[in-house]
Amino acid sequence: MDLTNANWRKSSRSSSQANCVEIAHVADRVAVRDSKNPDGPVLLVGKVDWSAFTR
Fold first, then answer.
1. Which of 10, 12, 41, 49 is the most buried (most CB within 10 A)?
2. Among the listed residues 25, 29, 27, the one whose alpha carbon sits nearest the alpha carbon of residue 44
3. Which InterPro entries does UniProt cross-reference here (predicted)?
């Protein structure tokens, strides 16, 4: 999946912390990555599973 134009964001509770998880909504999935390593691996999760996880 091409994530070149993904709109990555992190929780507002992270404030100025650099060590965070970032997410991007892409197509029918949620992409998850480590903010310290933006070029590293990305986990793709279905939106239904992401919703269950965040609940």
1. 10
2. 29
3. DUF397
Three-class SS of residue 46?
A: strand
Q: Is residue 31 part of a domain?
A: yes
The dihedral built from the CA positions of residue 49, 53, 11 and 23, taken in this order, carries a sign that is negative
Residue 12 resides in a domain: no
1-55 pLDDT, tens digit per residue, is: 889 899 999 877 776 666 789 999 999 999 999 988 989 999 999 999 999 998 9
Query: What range defines the domain where residue 37 resides?
Result: 18-54
Domain count, the chain: 1
Residues 4 and 38: their CA atoms lie apart, in Å, by 11
Which helix (H) or strand (E) segment is 52 a member of?
helix 47-54
Q: Retrieve residue 39's tokens.
A: 């070029």
